[in-house]
Specification:
45% of the residues lie in helices and 21% in strands. By secondary structure, the chain is an alpha/beta fold. It has a domain of 193 residues: Alpha-Beta Complex (Spore Coat Polysaccharide Biosynthesis Protein SpsA, Chain A). α1 links the parallel β1 and β2.
Amino acid sequence: MTKYKFLIPVYNDWQSLNLLLQNLNKVLSNISKTGNILVIDDGSTISPKLNIDSLSNIKKIELISLNKNLGSQKSIAIGLKYLQNKNISEIITIMDSDGEDDPSNIHEMIEEAENNQNYIITSNRTTRKEKLLFKWLYKIHKLFTFFFSTHWMSFGNFSSFHSKNLSFILRNNKVWLAYSSAISINCKIKRVYAKRMERYFGKSKVNFLNLVLHSLRVISVLQINVILFSSLYMIILIFLMSILNNIIFLFLFFSIIIFNIFLFLIKIYNNENQLNGWRSFINDVRTIN
């Protein structure tokens, strides 16, 4: 019988996680399946508070506590390394704890993962229940990423896959920078589509700077493509400058250079080789029930 594992990074939002666990339990009950949970506590300043009553279809909850706040992408990478080290054979689903990843889509995703075991099943967003500014910024991010890499990144963490794919996801440590772009270059992807829901509680603490840095990390994984396309665009701009003698082309030329320098600095700061020492970031591993 297929086993199901849910990997969920959390930073302080235990209230949302408890509601997510209740909703996951209902979904699993409705499809007559059981599952286990792996929670990655990303250096929370609030002690874990999990209500495990009435979770009849969730058989075990493991909690990995990190010794500092690393961010969701690095938390996911450590969780995947932990599961790879366990040598499991399960369907793994990664999702955020805040409710924006809709548990009602789980059935379709794990079914697709079972039937397409060599693929990562990604949940691609059709609509987003966010402020208009954030919606437009996300669209700009997708277009900008495609313009410089030809990768259309319309998905985030929410995905399901057979554990046999762990070696592909983790093979070059790019997942340390950004999960979505790592699977985009390392794995075969099958897309399903779903709405991005509202958060269970409160507002997102992600600010504009965090969004920009995350976007740069996503693009930095695709740096080979970015360098190739940047070179092409710079050649075109030089040609246009020689013909039209317009300062705008010069501005764009140097903007591309600065953009590539930023990507280089992002890669240095987020050195993917740190993932090789993933155990050093773990403070504690314990079973909740």
